[in-house]
Amino acid sequence: MTKSNNKTSRRQQILQALAHMLEASPGARITTAALAREVGVSEAALYRHFPSKSKMFEGLIEFIEETLFSRINLILSEQPNALAACDKILYLLLTFTERNPGITRILTGDALAGETDRLRARVAQLYDRLETQLKQVLREAEVREGLRPSITVGAAANLLMATAEGRIAQFVRSEFKRSPTENWQDQWMVLTQGFFR
Known about the structure:
By secondary structure, the protein is mainly alpha-helical. It is 75% helix and 0% strand.
């Protein structure tokens, strides 16, 4: 294994350990000393891969962004129906959080208490990007399908995001017992009845 691959895998190992600790200890603050013990290295070794703990959190946020937006691009290329595309985008978000409970604490801000404001701003930006994507899908629905939401496009996209964010918050608050995807399809049907004029 080359030195750069070893460095990449060690970085990956640190991020996976951080995600695991966030899941295993809901509500707990993660120290670099505890993280170093979890990875089996010294704190100095952690800092060789990441200059700060906030950079470790940024690494996890980058993973979230890359995972979600690469898959959203696939959904958009494959799904011409606007409502189905919105459903798939939100279901992707909910499924991602269900499969990555520790990382989900970052999305709710729970794990970022006491961390730099820049991290919370980055998470807010991620949610804004998701909402903008939904707005785009809804705007294109009018052009492609002759459909227009019964409320403004901005209000409609916000309603969809608020619903998903609420389910994610419940998941974290229940310490990962209340699945964010549970009953989603039934609720989606009710949520989107009369959605379009």
